[in-house]
Amino acid sequence: DEKESILGTLQMTLDYTATSQVDATAALTPFLTSAPSDLELLGEFELDMPLLDLLDTYYADPPDGAEASANPVWAQYIKERGDTEVETHRWEPSPAHGGWVRVVTFRSLTHAPIGPSTTMTTNTWQCTGYDWTHDGTVSQVTFQIKVQLHDIPYGDIFTVEHSMTLTKSSPSNNNGVSVKVRLVYLAIPFSSGCMFKSKILSQTKTATHESYVLWFRLLKEMHNAPGTSIAATSVNSAAKKRAPLVRMCSIVDEEVALEEIFENQRMHIFGKWGPNYLWPTDRSRFSNRQGDKELSFNKVECPEHWTWTSEWKVDMKYTECDEEGWSYATDFPRFKYHLAKGKSNARKVGSSVRRRRWVRTMCLNPDADVAF
User: Fold this and answer.
1) Can you tell me the distance from the alpha carbon of 156 to that of 313, in angstroms, rounded to the nearest whole number?
2) Quick one: 36 exposed, middle or buried, by C-beta within 10 A (0-12, 13-18, 19+)?
3) What is the pLDDT of residues 261-277, one digit of tens each?
4) What is the rounded CA–CA span in Å between residue 127 and residue 38?
5) At 19, is the secondary structure helix, strand, or coil?
6) Which residues are registered as beta bridge partners of 284?
7) Which of 99, 119, 122 is nearest to 109 (CA)?
8) How far apart are CA 124 and CA 342, in angstroms?
9) pLDDT per position as a tens digit, 142-185
10) Strands (E), 23-83
11) Under 8 Å CB-to-CB from 41, ≥6 apart: which residues?
C-alpha cells in the first residue's frame, strides 16, 4: 500500500507538471492587438550579411555604458529622422507574450506644416526566434513593434503596429554571405472612432514605409563601408533646436487640422470642483496639453490660408470621461502617465484634479495658392 501510495503521488506530480507546462504555453497572449489578417504588407528588403551578424550588431543590447546611438548606422538613422532624447532599454524575457521585449523612447518629428513639431514616442519591441543570452544558429527571427505617439491628439486611441520577419536564405555571392529577406507588415488599430481616421491611416503608412526604406538603405550603404566608425558618424549631442510649442495643434494631413485647449480644475477640500481651487503650482485654467502654456479661446486664431470648420466643442472621445467630458487623476502629471500606460482617466476615489479637452477643426482654403 505504501508503495502504491508513493507511485500514485509521483504520477500525480508528473501529471501536474505536464499540465502546468501546457497551461503556461496556452496562457501566452498575443503581443500585437491586431489580428494577423489585419496586417498589410508594407515592403520587402534584402541585405547581404549573415543574419546572426545583423542581430548582434544592430539589434542586440549595446555594451554596458554605451548608447544604441553609438552604433554608426543607428546614429545616422536617428540623425536623418531628426529623433532626439533616445533612450533604449535592455531586452527582457516576456512571460506574458513569450520571447523577449524591450522599450525604446524618443522624441520624433511630426512633419506637420503647422502645429506641434515633435511628439514623445514609445516603441515596444518583441523578439521571437532568438535568445539574446546565448550564441547559436538562427534561421528566422520575428520582431513585432507597437508604437505609441503621446503628444498628438487622438494619439491615445490608436497604435501603430509593425511585424518584421528576418529570414536566412541561400548564399548569393562568392563570399558565402547569406541574403536576409525582410517582410514588413503594418496595422493601425483604433480603440474608438475618429473623424480623421482615414487621414491618419494614409499618412502613417507613408511615414512608416519611409522609415523602413531609410533604415535598410543605410544598412546597405554603411555596413562594412570603409571609414565607417563610431567616431565618424556619432550623433551630435547639440541637436538642432526646435521652436517651443505655444499651442497644440493636431495636423492630420496638409489640408485638415484641429486646435485643442485643455480646461483644468481642482477639487476643493469640501468636495467642490472649480478653477478657483487650482494651486499656484498648477497649470492655468485653460492650457495646452503639457500645461506649461496658458491659452484662451478668443486668442487662438486661424492661420493664414486656413478656415474654421467648427466651433469650439468638448471632445467626448479623447479618453474615458464623464457625461461632461471630464477625465480625472490624482494630480496633473498623472494624465501623461495614464496615456502612456494605456489607462483610462475615469473618475475614481482619490482623484483631486480633472481636465477636459476642447477642439475646433479647420481646413486649408482650397482657393489659397500656397505651398508648405
Assistant:
1) 19
2) exposed
3) 999 999 988 888 999 99
4) 20
5) helix
6) none
7) 119
8) 13
9) 999 999 988 777 777 888 999 998 888 765 554 444 556 666 78
10) 40-48
11) 183, 184, 185
CB atoms within 10 A of CB 278: 16
- Cell triple for 121: 514616442
Q: How far is CA 289 from CA 119, 186, 267, 275, in A?
A: 12, 29, 20, 17
Query: How many Å apart are CA 306 and CA 258, to the nearest integer?
Result: 11
95-101 — which CB contacts under 8 Å span 24+ positions? Answer: 96/28, 96/29, 97/28, 97/29, 97/30, 97/31, 97/126, 98/28, 98/128, 99/31, 99/126, 99/127, 99/128, 99/129, 100/126, 100/127, 100/128, 100/130, 100/131, 100/132, 101/31, 101/125, 101/126, 101/127
Cα–Cα distance measured from residue 163 to residue 37, given in angstroms and rounded to the nearest whole number: 12
Domains of the chain by range and CATH?
Answer: 36-222 (3.30.530), 248-364 (no CATH)
Calculate ∠ Cα 207-360-305, nearest 5°. Answer: 70
If you count them, how many residues does the chain have? 372
**Alpha-carbon gap, residue 185 to 41, rounded angstroms:** 4
DSSP annotation of 121: E
Whether this prediction's pTM lies above 0.90 is answered by no
Which cell is 357 given? Answer: 479637452
CA dist 206 and 186 (Å) reads 11
